[in-house]
Structure formats: C-alpha cells, structure tokens
Input
Amino acid sequence: MNVLLLNPNRFRTPPAPPIGLEVLAGHVAQDGHSVRVLDLCFSDDMYADIDRAAETFRPDLAGITIRNIDSVLYENNEFYLEEIGQLVMHFRNKYGIPVIVGGAALSADPAGILEYLGADHAIAGPAEGVITEVLSSLQKGQSVPRLIRGFYKPYSRSLRCTAGIDYPVYTREGGIPGFETHKGCSSSCVYCLEADAPVAFKNPEDIVREITWFTKKGYNHFHLCDPEFNEDLDHALSFCTALKQSGMNILWTLYMKPGNYNQKLFRLMRETGVYLITLTVDSFKKCPLYWDDIEKIIFNAKTNGIKISVDFLTGFPYEDEELLKWCLDFFRRLQPDRVNINTYIRLYKALTITRIISKDPSLASCLKGNTDDDALIHPVFFNRIDNDKLRQYIGDDPIFRIDGAEKGVNYTRS
Output
C-alpha cells in the first residue's frame, strides 16, 4: 500500500517536529509498504501541497496525526479540529481513500473526535503497536473497527523515519529534536489526559542510538518528550548512565513530577547536559510530603546548576484564595527560576475533574468558553480566579508569569 502520513500541526512558537509520525513511518516502511510523510507545519498552501503529494504519490490511505485539540489556553484560544476535519473531507471527497486519525489528542475523547472529524478510523494510543495488523486487514479488504486501541510493546526498538521532516527549518524557527525514554504515566492527576496511561519503557541503548544519529547530523540540543522523565527512578538512572557512557556532548531539557528522584539522578542529569527542568505542580488535594518533594527537587536542581521552571495549575473546585496565597509564598521562598501559573482548567470528557465538576450544579457559574458543547470537544474551562485577580496576587514579582500571557515554551524563554 501507498501510505501518506500528514502532520497538520502549524503551531510555530516554537514548531514541534512530529516524532510520533516519524516512528509510525518507520514501522509502516518496515512492513513493506511505501510511505511518505507530508509535514504541513511550514506550508503556505496546505491544499496545494496535499494535492501535489496525492497526484505524485497516489496514496491508498491517508493517516493524520493530531497533537492537540486546541491551544489549551483560555485567552486567545486556537481550535484546531475544524481545519483538520476539512482535511479529512478533502481526502475522502477528492481522492476517495480511507483516512485514519491518531495522535495524542485522541485520548480526550476517541469516539467523539472520530465522529467530529468524519474519519474512517481512529487509533487511540501508540499506533506503532497495531499499524501492521490494521494495514494488512485493509489491504485484504477485511473489516477493521472504526476505533482501534493502540499500544506500545515495552523495550521494542524505535524505528524513526525522518524523511519529509525538514529539521534545518525547524531549528531555524526555534524548534529542537526530541526523544522519548518511555510512554505513559502512572500518576492520577485529575486534570491530565495522560493520567494512568499504561507505562512502557524504552531500551536506554536504543534511545542513545537515536540521539547519536541526530548528533552526527549536527544537532546537539534536545527536548525530552516523556510525560515526566522521572516516571521510574531506576530507568531514569539507567538512561542517564548510558548517555554519559556514550560521551556525547549535548544539551537537553525535560519535565519532572514531584517524587522519584535522588541526588545521583541530579548529578547525572547535570553531567549529561540537562540545563532546564520543568516541574509539573498542581494544588489539588496535596499532602505535606508533596510540597516537601517540590522543595527538595528545586534545591537539588539549583545545587547542580540546572535551571528549574515550575508549571503550576491551581484554582480547583472548593479551593480558597488562602491556598493560592500560601502557594505563592511557598514559591517566593524557594525561588525557582520561573513559575508559570494557570488558573483556567481545560475540561475534557475523559477527565476526573470534569466528572467532579459536573456533579455539582453550584460550580456551573465557573465554566467559561463553549459551555453549550456537552461533548467538551470545543474548549470549555473551569475558572475561579481570573487573570486580573491573579495579577493582584503576584504583583511585580519577576519569578511569576501568567500562562498564555506570552507565546513560547520554557526552553525558548530560559
């Protein structure tokens, strides 16, 4: 089969290379299919580029990755699914080929997003574990479920195919290559779509080989694409040890969560080129040990000369403003390099926080956005502390930033 894989993500502050699509392309090619990646991130005319690819490559199937439903931020929100739905219809109406959608965004509501887009099939979860069977069944004319559950086999080798991804343009525009050490997350954060997702680790030596390939192409700045690097302390230590033994001289940035750390991990991160940690923090029903871990992680990062930013989500149901003031004083005392504060909680159908809010009619007045959309595909937010009030609390303290007030991500601001 001729398989055309599309990246429609045109967010460019900074642009993010479609790593999942690279991996999927590698697996499709290994199965003997002809595959082409069409990256529309920098396209001036998406439909002209699609038609050109379709006329020269003549695909039997199109796969479209969806990184995000929307920009997640309340102010100046950008909704992406409408444009992606138009791309799906373009393929179906003009070329009469089946369209499969996948990507991280599907976890919000796999069936709902599939129906909204009008695609033939959707793969929810890592597609590399099921794509062989899906393509084989389609090629034979066999029945394939509309909604397919993907998976990743632990320690299986990653097969990245970067053909079609213009990394020089990405880096020139501020993007950087990425890599993963695992998939999934064992944490149960009530606001997160990755909560309780099955965890599967990658072989540290295979990850180092991926990074080596990029360094030989002249790239030495990387972003870790794990939900949180320290999902498992032993695996994080094993990867850092393998990276150190490789002798590569790189810079990389990562996300961490409170817990699963020791002094050795911070030392190895420093020795292997980690220059920035983003620590994910929220205020929802936390015990004292949680805040103790945050304090120790910030201390260890600063002791090892690693910058640390905090992404802080607060303003949950039943919290009062005294808690917010306590948290702000807590961060003022610890002095991380930056604290990005968000008080607008994006609601999705699959989230625990959505179920909590929906059960209490008294919270309805705190809903913002497209509140008529019961499916929550269009952006709906829970907010108790608006940005004007938040500004009053943070004052002119330079460590605090309101999330969404400026474009970019932590590694572009450091």
Remarks:
- The longest helix spans residues 288-303.
- The longest strand covers residues 274-282.
